[in-house]
């Protein structure tokens, strides 16, 4: 039996990988790729949140938002710290990588328009993070990551609950109610895209074979829908999805994927799209990708210049 | 936990449904609630937070009000936040302590 099959069988039977000596090259590459996506996603969630945090309605709300951003930096640190142990040069990764090569979701390449969008961001996107990382916490074969996720799991729950509080409170105000609906209209499908290509279009997944995660993309999407849809229904927000009794799962009421107008942050639901085109859109990046990554790199670059000038 | 009169026991129970925003531990098991008094149709809650810099004070107060106002006879909820005595881990209930332990958080 070839070594990669043996490792795959071992991890499927509960073997926990602890270090480089336990893995093969394919496992290492899949793990690194996964952790880069996780670290980038955590870190790049902050620039969009910062675009509206000064619109917080009260000081305590602002402190909550800042506490959330601090958590996200901590989560990013965990992912990058794990990558460092795997031999990755973190300074290069953080400060020398070009903006378009960062692996954060497309949804994070946009400025937010108002405080309500920050709430929906927490309620939808942090829920996606909670769903994905909750799955990793439950199933991942990589021991160091599994142990680090105990804290992350709880903190993401805090973020998504903050989003729910903001949305629920806003729904009681007729004007803000409209803002919630407007935010949900573009952010709902955006959140569903976090989970990636449909299962039927994937030939194989190293992440699943090596048990870096447990559930498939479609299963994770269903899991997200199973809490997001009932929550939205409970507060009176309309979402383009419902539970289908016959199929025993959530189904969408609009084509998914479909085309997106990034300038107006609007889904063109009369124009169904393919996942190939969605991936192309992801790779082209959203409007603020460059600005957001440069903001993260600014301090390090200025310090480097200062050092050069001083010598 | 402060003194529990028979007329306020149900409100202590109700507040066991109000969770800390981060850990699924109630504000009662966290030891945040010092006293509940009933005055006509008004409830007076005396409580504290784990830190003066707690990022979720308004959020928790909103959740407490929301839950208590679900009781038909309650028309108003007054919340008085005090810092004396200060919160320490000694205020955690045995149940709260067990839950934190499960999540890998020390309560010593």
Question: What is the gist of this entry?
Answer:
The complex is a heterodimer of chains A (311) and B (108). Chain A has helices at residues 3-12, 25-43, 46-50, 59-85, 90-95, 115-139, 143-170, 174-193, 206-209, 217-235, 275-284, 289-310; strands spanning 241-244, 249-252, 258-261, 266-272. Chain A is mostly helical.
Number of strands of chain B: 3
* Count of runs of 4 or more consecutive helical residues of chain A: 12
What is the helix content of chain A? 55-70%
Please state roughly what percent of the residues of chain A sit in beta strands, choosing from under 5%, 5-15%, 15-25%, 25-35%, 35-45% or over 45%: 5-15%
Rounded to an integer in angstroms, the radius of gyration calculated over CA atoms of chain B is: 13 Å
Mean pLDDT of chain A: 95
Q: What's the order of the H and E elements of chain B?
A: HEEHEH
Enumerate the spans of chain A where pLDDT stays under 50 for 5 or more consecutive residues: none
H and E string of chain A: HHHHHHHHHHEEEEHH
Organism (chain B): Anoxybacteroides rupiense
Protein name (chain B): Metal-sulfur cluster assembly factor
Domain MIP18 family-like (chain B): 12-78
Pfam family, one (chain B): FeS_assembly_P
Q: Can you offer a commentary on this structure?
A:
The complex is a heterodimer of chains A (311) and B (108). Chain A is mostly helical. Chain A is 63% helix and 6% strand. In chain A, the strands form two sheets. Chain A has a two-stranded antiparallel sheet with strand order 1-2. In chain A, helix 2 packs antiparallel against helix 4. The longest helix of chain A is centred in the middle third of the chain and has 28 residues. Chain A is globular and about 60 Å long. In chain A, 39% of the residues are buried. The mean pLDDT of chain B is 91. The two termini of chain B are 18 Å apart. Chain B is built from three helices and three strands. Chain B has one domain: GMP Synthetase, Chain A, domain 3, CATH 3.30.300. Chains A and B meet through helix 4 and helix 7 of A and helix 2 of B. Chain B: This is Metal-sulfur cluster assembly factor. Chain B: It comes from Anoxybacteroides rupiense.
């Amino acid at each position: 039996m070839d070594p990669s099959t043996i490792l795959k069988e071992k991890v499927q039977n509960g073997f926990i990988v602890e270090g480089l000596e336990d893995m093969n090259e394919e496992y290492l590459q899949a793990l690194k790729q996964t952790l880069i996506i996780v670290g980038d996603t955590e870190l790049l969630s902050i620039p969009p949140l910062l675009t509206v945090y000064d619109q917080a309605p009260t000081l305590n709300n602002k402190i909550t938002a800042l506490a959330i951003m601090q958590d996200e930096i901590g989560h990013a640190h965990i992912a990058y710290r794990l990558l460092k142990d795997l031999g990755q040069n973190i300074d290069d990764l953080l400060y020398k990588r070009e903006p378009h090569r960062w692996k954060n979701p497309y949804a994070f390449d946009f400025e937010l328009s108002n405080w309500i969008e920050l709430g929906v961001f927490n309620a939808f996107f942090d829920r996606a993070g909670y769903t994905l990382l909750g799955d990793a916490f439950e199933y991942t074969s990589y021991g160091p990551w599994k142990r680090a996720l105990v804290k992350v799991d709880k903190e993401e729950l805090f973020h998504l609950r903050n989003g729910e509080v903001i949305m629920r409170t806003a729904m009681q105000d007729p004007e803000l109610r409209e803002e919630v609906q407007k935010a949900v209209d573009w952010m709902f499908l955006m959140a569903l895209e976090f989970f990636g290509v449909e299962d039927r279009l994937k030939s194989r997944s190293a992440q699943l074979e090596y048990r870096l995660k447990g559930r498939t993309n479609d299963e994770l999407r269903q899991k997200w829908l199973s809490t997001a849809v009932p929550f939205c229904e409970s507060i009176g927000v309309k979402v383009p999805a419902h539970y289908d009794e016959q199929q025993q799962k959530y189904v969408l009421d609009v084509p998914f994927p479909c085309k997106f107008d990034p300038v107006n942050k609007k889904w063109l639901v009369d124009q169904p799209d393919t996942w190939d085109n969605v991936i192309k859109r992801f790779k082209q990046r959203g409007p603020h990708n460059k600005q957001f990554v440069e903001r993260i790199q600014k301090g390090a670059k200025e310090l480097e210049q200062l050092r050069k000038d001083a010598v | 936990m402060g003194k529990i009169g028979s007329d306020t026991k149900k409100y202590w129970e109700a507040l066991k449904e109000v969770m800390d925003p981060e850990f699924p531990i109630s504000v009662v098991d966290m030891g945040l609630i010092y006293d509940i008094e009933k005055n006509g149709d008004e409830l007076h809650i005396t409580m504290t937070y784990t830190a003066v810099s707690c990022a979720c004070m308004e959020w928790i107060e909103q959740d407490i009000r929301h839950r208590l106002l679900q009781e038909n006879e309650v028309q108003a909820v007054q919340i008085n936040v005090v810092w004396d005595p200060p919160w320490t881990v000694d205020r955690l209930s045995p149940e709260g302590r067990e839950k934190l332990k499960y999540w890998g958080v020390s309560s010593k």
